[in-house]
C-alpha cells in the first residue's frame, strides 16, 4: 500500500523539536500536510565514527487531519512498535549486512551525533526509495560551555570535564570496566548535568597489565580531582576527610570487579558459548563469588552506594553480586547505605538514556589479543526502559548525596 496525494504543490512538513539537544533529552517528531489515513514510514539513520550505518524505523498511518506524531501515534511495526516517542533513537541497530558485534559509542564528545530523520511513502521496504522529506537532528553528550581538559600529567591519563559558571560543583571520578581505553561520553554528560567529572583511562584496549591496575594509580587520580575541587579558579565544593576516605574505599571496592579481570584468565573453563558462538562470562563471576580472597570487605563502606543491575546480564552475575553485597552490609548494620535498582530483561551494558541496546559486542581478549564476541543479554525494549529509568535515579542519587549533603555542611 502506498499513499497518494503527496505532490510537489503539497509537500509534507517534517519537524523535530528540539533539533539540537543532549542525548538524555527527549524530542518530538511531527509530520504534517500528509494525505489523511495513509501509510508512511519514518526512519532515522546515523553514520557512526567507526564508519557503520545504524537505522531505526517505525510504520505509521496518518490521522484524519494528515498528521503523524511519533509522541502520540502508534507504530505498526519496524524496529519498534506501539507509542514510543524515542523509538527512532533507542531502537537504532546496524543496517542489514553490517559487521557483527557492533556497539555504538561516541568517541569525540566535542561533536554531536548527527541523526537524519526521513519520511517514506508506504510501508514497503524503503531502502531503495527516495524520502519525501528529511531533517538532521543533533544529539550531544557535551552541553554548551563545558570545558574539556585532556589529562596527561605524568602517569595520569584521562579527560576532565568542567561545567560552565561559578559553581560550586561536586566532583566525580568516572571509571569503566574491563574493556580498556578512554571513554568520555558519560563524563561529558554528567558535566552537562552539573558535575566536575574526570574520565579515567587505566589501561589500553587489549593491553591489561597488573602494573596498570595498582591501587596507587587511583589514589593519584582522586588526589588530582580533589586539587581541582579545592582550586579557587574552579570554586568547587570541598570534601571532608571522611568523604575522601569513603570515596577511596568505594574506588577500591569498584576495582574489585576490574582487578578480577586479571583472574578471569585463570578460569576460562567457566566461559560458555551460546548458539551464535558468543561467549557468556557470568559463570566466571559466580565462581569468583565463592572465593573470599577475591572479595573486598564491603562492610567497611561508609558512604552511600547505588547498584544498578540487569537481571539478564550474561557478562557478569550482577544480581548475585548485589545479593552478596547487600547481605554483607546488612549484617554490618550498614544496609541503609545501599540502594539497589534491579531491572528484569536487562543486560550488562546499562548506558545513558536512548542508547541503542547492545545484546552482544566485540572485545579484545587479553590472553590472545584476539577479538571475540561477548553476549551481554537483555531485550531491547525493557533494556531501553531500564536505561532511561536508571539514569534519572542515578542523577537523583548524585544530586541528593553530592549537592544536598554538601549544602547541609556549609
TrEMBL record:
Q: Where is the BAAT/Acyl-CoA thioester hydrolase C-terminal domain?
A: 270-403
Does this entry carry the keyword Transmembrane helix?
A: yes
Which biological process terms from the Gene Ontology are attached to this UniProt entry?
acyl-CoA metabolic process; fatty acid metabolic process
Gene Ontology MF annotations:
fatty acyl-CoA hydrolase activity
Keyword annotations from UniProtKB, A to Z: Membrane, Transmembrane, Transmembrane helix
Question: Which residues are listed as membrane-spanning?
Answer: 217-237, 249-268
Q: List the protein's name.
A: Acyl-CoA thioesterase 15
Amino acid at each position: 500500500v502506498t499513499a497518494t496525494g503527496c505532490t510537489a504543490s503539497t509537500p509534507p512538513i517534517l519537524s523535530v523539536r528540539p533539533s539540537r539537544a543532549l542525548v538524555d533529552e527527549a524530542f518530538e517528531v511531527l509530520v504534517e500536510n500528509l494525505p489523511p489515513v495513509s501509510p508512511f514510514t519514518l526512519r532515522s539513520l546515523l553514520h557512526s565514527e567507526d564508519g557503520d550505518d545504524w537505522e531505526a524505523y517505525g510504520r505509521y498511518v496518518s490521522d484524519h487531519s494528515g498528521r503523524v506524531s511519533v509522541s502520540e501515534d502508534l507504530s505498526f511495526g519496524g524496529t519498534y512498535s506501539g507509542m514510543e516517542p524515542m523509538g527512532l533513537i533507542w531502537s537504532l541497530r546496524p543496517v542489514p549486512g553490517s559487521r557483527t558485534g557492533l556497539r555504538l559509542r561516541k568517541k569525540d564528545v566535542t561533536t554531536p551525533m548527527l541523526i537524519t530523520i526521513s519520511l517514506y511513502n508506504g510501508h514497503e521496504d524503503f531502502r531503495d526509495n527516495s524520502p519525501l522529506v528529511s531533517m538532521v537532528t543533533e544529539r550531544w553528550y557535551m552541553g554548551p560551555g563545558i570545558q574539556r581538559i585532556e589529562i596527561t600529567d605524568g602517569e595520569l591519563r584521562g579527560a576532565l570535564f568542567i561545567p560552565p559558571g561559578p559553581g560550586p560543583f561536586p566532583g566525580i571520578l568516572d571509571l569503566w570496566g574491563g574493556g580498556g581505553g578512554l571513554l568520555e561520553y558519560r563524563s561529558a554528560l554528567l558535566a552537562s548535568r552539573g558535575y566536575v567529572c574526570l574520565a579515567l583511562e587505566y589501561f589500553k584496549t587489549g593491553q591489561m597489565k597488573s602494573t596498570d591496575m595498582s591501587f596507587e594509580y587511583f589514589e593519584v587520580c582522586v588526589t588530582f580531582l580533589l586539587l581541582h575541587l579545592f582550586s579557587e579558579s574552579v570554586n568547587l565544593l570541598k570534601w571532608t576527610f571522611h568523604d575522601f576516605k569513603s570515596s577511596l574505599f568505594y574506588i577500591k571496592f569498584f576495582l574489585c570487579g576490574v582487578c578480577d579481570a586479571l583472574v578471569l584468565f585463570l578460569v576460562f573453563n567457566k566461559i560458555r558459548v551460546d548458539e551464535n558462538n558468543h561467549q557468556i562470562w557470568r559463570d566466571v563471576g559466580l565462581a569468583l563469588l565463592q572465593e573470599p580472597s577475591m572479595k573486598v570487605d564491603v562492610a567497611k563502606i561508609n558512604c552511600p552506594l547505588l547498584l544498578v543491575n540487569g537481571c539478564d546480564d550474561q557478562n557478569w552475575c550482577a544480581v548475585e553480586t548485589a545479593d552478596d553485597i547487600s547481605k554483607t552490609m546488612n549484617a554490618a548494620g550498614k544496609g541503609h547505605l545501599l540502594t539497589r535498582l534491579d531491572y528484569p530483561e536487562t543486560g550488562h551494558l546499562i548506558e545513558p538514556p536512548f542508547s541503542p541496546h547492545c545484546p552482544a559486542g566485540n572485545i579484545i581478549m587479553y590472553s590472545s589479543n584476539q577479538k571475540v564476541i561477548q553476549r551481554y543479554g537483555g531485550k531491547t525494549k525493557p533494556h531501553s526502559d531500564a536505561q532511561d529509568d536508571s539514569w534519572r535515579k542515578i542523577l537523583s542519587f548524585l544530586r541528593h548525596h553530592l549537592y544536598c549533603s554538601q549544602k547541609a555542611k556549609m
